[in-house]
Design brief:
Elements: E1 29-32, E2 35-38, H1 49-53, E3 56-64, E4 67-69, H2 71-84, H3 93-107, E5 112-122, E6 134-143, H4 150-155, E7 157-165, H5 182-193, E8 198-202, E9 215-220, E10 223-226, H6 235-246, E11 251-253, H7 258-262, E12 266-271, E13 275-282, E14 285-286, H8 294-305, E15 313-315
The structure holds pyridoxal-5'-phosphate.
Pyridoxal-5'-phosphate binds at residues 60, 210, 213-215, 232, 234-237, 270-272.
Length: 319
Amino acid sequence: MTLAAAQPVTMLPSVDDRHRDPRHYPHGVAFMDGQYLPMSEAKISVLDWGFLHSDATYDTAHVWEGRFFRLDLHLDRFWGGMERLRMKIPYLREEVTEILHNCVALSGHKSAYVEMICTRGGSPTFSRDPRQSENRFIAFAVPFGSVANKEQLEHGLHVSVSETVRISPKSVDPTVKNYHWLDLVKGLFDAFDAGGETALILDENGNVAEGPGFNVFVVKDGGLRTPAFGVLPGITRRSVFDLAAETNLKAVAEDVSRADLSGADEVFITSTAGGIMPVTRVDGAPISDGTVGPVTKRLMDLYWKKHSDPAWSTQVSYP
Ligand code: PLP
């Protein structure tokens, strides 16, 4: 079909209005291509390799009651990811810090989910050589979001373990926070089909790996264990290790089998999107007596208390 014979653009079926309506986007402020924008106007080209190939790295921090939580650790991970993917942005770390603070301050959110992204971008000559791409930096602040809702935080999540295997660390470096989520999303659909509320997927050896946006811990005989292999080293996971050290709890990163999970005294998941979140059922069966356990409760309490500690958090200055 020639271009002239193609349907005129005005006759294309109209797009559902919701897709154009700024109210469809959460209220927030983004920074891209050198300017601050309302969330609804922050858009990238479909030719950006970040979109076409998931060729991107990112990090998500959160702000709670007006304070960033462990932003330095998120910046370390983001910079490490860009280095490993051979990406560069035209901003220094202090400038990115300022941009993130500005996004939050301009949004007015006291509790926010704050993302920084570097995409491969594209080459001005459409070269397929990634070395010729101009990398793109984007940041935004939107309202805080959580993996678990209020009810689930109180009574625990029901997790289903999917047979889906997380992409091998030999293929995609899991220490680089990335948008390779097809395995995690498949795991989520498997979990929904099995009656679960969220998913855990496996590593290539059949052990438990991680879930869509979270790490997992088991508590057994007072000690903590979280998978070591093929997972993102989460900042919340790191916070659990730091809290465990402060409170003389033993915590190790090593293989967690499916039997370790179902036979645990307590299970919880960890994410910047929600913090430490209890799991009280796995594959339909209760963990211990099916209520949120004492170690999980204590860690949840300590974790949220650290949000006002200047050693763990920094104040945003709002206009
Ligand atoms: N694992 C994956 C695959 C993730 O995407 C995330 C966060 O988005 C996590 C774990 C948890 O990491 P963090 O605690 O840094 O939010």
